[in-house]
Design brief:
Helix content: 25-40%
Number of helices: 8
Radius of gyration: 18 Å
Oligomer: single chain
Order of helices and strands: HHHEHEHEEHEHEEEEHEE
Shape: globular
Largest sheet: 11 strands, mixed
CATH class of the largest domain: Alpha Beta
CATH architecture of the largest domain: 3-Layer(aba) Sandwich
Structural class: alpha/beta
CATH topology of the largest domain: Rossmann fold
Number of strands: 11
Strand content: 35-45%
């Protein structure tokens, strides 16, 4: 499997531009709703795969005490800049969710934007779940989202093109999927064309993001093996029961 650190080093620089229309505030409210529904007195959260820290900032505004870890030093640098701009105190650090050793415990571990789908091997997802369990006391809540197999196989990935601009660049991103049926993995092959507005030079970046889609029975098994009880899973868009149109799903588990 391609080293996850290498995947994000170039791509992280353009991350904010491509996801400037992502509604982090609304997603944070979703997470708050789910934590209130399934947990008790949850205030202290650690985010596995926090990216540029946008979810953490919005959750801090809702009253949570947040910590965030991410594999990419560049993502963490951006997250710290966002934190200073928003004047919220959040502990951001570089770490791999598969081998992170928490130094304290939390009320909840969250992992959003399909970070767990980047754990493409059985050993990867088990290691990430084991780390999450170490971060929780008994009764703590583990909340994460993944690509959901029923929806992915019903509406298979296709080539997509996205165009955005920021202050420095005009950006074109072409995403081409390659599906591997025997591994439940999709390689999303990105080609990013970054046109410098100042001198019109073009930089091309190639990234491959390997994403695993999951089904409930396998995740229920992995969670049980790592000290969790699966409580529920719901559609990420509607928070209703999943069906064959659900491309992504939140899974909620309790540490036992």
């Amino acid at each position: 499997m391609e080293d996850q650190m290498e995947v994000f080093e170039d791509y992280a620089y353009y991350y904010n531009a491509f996801y400037q229309d992502k509604d982090y505030k609304a997603e944070a409210k979703q997470i708050d709703l789910l934590l209130q529904k399934y947990g008790q007195n949850i205030k202290k959260i650690i985010n596995y795969g926090c990216g540029t820290g946008r979810h953490d900032i919005e959750l801090s505004k809702l009253g949570y005490h947040c910590t965030g870890i991410d594999l990419s030093p560049l993502m963490i640098d951006i997250a710290k800049k966002h934190m200073l701009q928003e004047e919220h105190l959040i502990d951001f650090s570089v770490a791999d969710v598969r081998n992170y050793q928490p130094t304290e415990t939390y009320d909840s571990v969250i992992s959003l934007f399909h970070v767990m789908s980047y754990q493409t091997g059985n050993e990867d997802i088990l290691a990430a779940f084991e780390s999450a369990r170490r971060a929780l006391d008994t009764g703590g809540i583990f909340l994460f989202d993944v690509w959901y197999g029923s929806g992915v196989l019903t509406d298979k990935p296709v080539v997509r093109v996205k165009k955005v601009e920021d202050d420095k660049y005009s950006l074109i991103r072409i995403a081409k999927p390659v599906m591997y049926e025997k591994r439940n993995v999709v390689d999303v092959c990105y080609e990013v064309l970054a046109v410098d507005k100042a001198d019109m030079t073009v930089k091309t970046i190639h990234e491959t993001h390997s994403m695993r889609y999951f089904f409930r029975p396998e995740l229920e098994y992995y969670l049980k093996q790592t000290g969790f009880e699966l409580i529920d899973h719901v559609d990420c868009s509607t928070l209703a029961e999943t069906d064959f149109t659900s491309w992504t799903s939140y899974f909620v588990a309790k540490a036992v």
